Structure formats: C-alpha cells, structure tokens
Amino acid sequence: MKRAGRVLIVAPLLVLPVALYKKTSASGHVWQIDPFKCTQCGQCKTNCVRTPSAVKCVHAFVMCGYCDLCGGYLRQGTKTISTGAENQLCPTGAITRKFVEEPYFEYTINEDLCDGCGKCVKGCLDFGNGSLYLQINQDLCADCNDCSIARKCPSDAISRVPADQQYIPKERGTLNPKPLNPSE
C-alpha cells in the first residue's frame, strides 16, 4: 500500500513537465488581441487566470501625437493639466509622462504596474489617435488551451495567432499587412 501511494505522488511529477512541453510546443500558436476588434471592455483585467492580467497596454510611438492634452493619460474633465494622480486616467499609475519640448510630451507604459484594464486605450481612442492598444504579453501568458478572456470577450477580439507572429502591431494598419512591394 505504501508503494502505491508513492507511485501516486511521483507519477504526476514525472508527467507534468512532458505535458507542459507538449502544450507549449505542439500547437505553434499563441493567444493574442486584435487591436482593430478590441472595444476596451475591461474583461482582460478581470478574466485572465493571471493576477495581474497578462494583458498589457502597448504604445505605438510612431502613431503618437505626443499631445500635451493626452486622452490616454489625463482623466476627462480635469481642471488642470498636471501629473497629479487625481488627473491621471490610469488607476495604477502605469503611464509616465515626460516633457520633450513645448508642446510635446512622451508617454511610456510601466508593464509591471499595468493591469490590462484598457481605460487608457479607450481614452486614447476616444480623444486621441489610438496609439495605445492592448496586447497579451507572451512572457506572462499561461497559454491556456481555452483562454478565459477569449471566452468572455464581447467583440471576439482574442484568437490564436502563429507563434512566430505573436504580437499584432497596430501601427501597421492591418492585421495581416501585405508587402509594400507586390513582388516580395
């Protein structure tokens, strides 16, 4: 009886690494958010199996207007334009603002603080140019067989993408960009 108990304890420990290896290498696909379908509903923050969520805000610097009055950084209706917490849209303070030159500011995302709520993305889309968007950080993602965020996503924005194209850069303008030169 003692021997059977040892087998029951040791067997899962031997099988687990093999199962994890097969899960991550067999499919060749990872979960990702299509920034063109995402509605910034907040489900990524609350439905990810990771705490905080593996979903993070990404900033497409080439699209950014470097605005003084940034809709992704400042809360709508603020009385003063300042870096005070009461004026910031991000509830975790994950976005930092750095003066470049009059009237331009650079905005960066601290992924360690970002919880994937999407409030800044919605603000940037509603009152800016949409340079902020959400992506699943593949270093943090558990790569679940059935992504809990994808099941709850009202806009069906999360799907499997090839692992060699694991991020969808919004600045390209389309999900599957065609080469600039048709002969390529």
Structure summarized in a few sentences:
This protein has 184 residues and is an alpha+beta fold. The chain has one domain (26-172).
How many individual β-strands? 6
Outline the biggest β-sheet. Answer: 2 strands, antiparallel
User: How many angstroms separate the termini?
Assistant: 67 Å
| Strand arrangement in the largest pleated sheet | 1-6
How much helicity do the residues have?
10-25%
Uncertain regions: pLDDT < 50 for 5+ in a row?
Answer: 13-26, 174-184
Average pLDDT value? 83
Total DSSP helices: 4
- Total domains: 1
Radius of gyration: 20 Å
- Give the CA-based shape: globular
Structural class: alpha+beta
Q: Give helix and strand order, one letter per element, not per position.
A: HEHEEEHEHE
Proportion of strand residues: 15-25%
Description:
The protein is of the alpha+beta class and 184 residues long. It has one domain. It is built from four helices and six strands, in the order H-E-H-E-E-E-H-E-H-E. The strands form three sheets. The chain has a two-stranded antiparallel sheet. Strands 2-5 form a two-stranded antiparallel ribbon. It has a two-stranded antiparallel ribbon with strand order 3-4. Strand 3 and strand 4 form a beta hairpin. The protein is globular, with a radius of gyration of 20 Å. The termini are far apart.
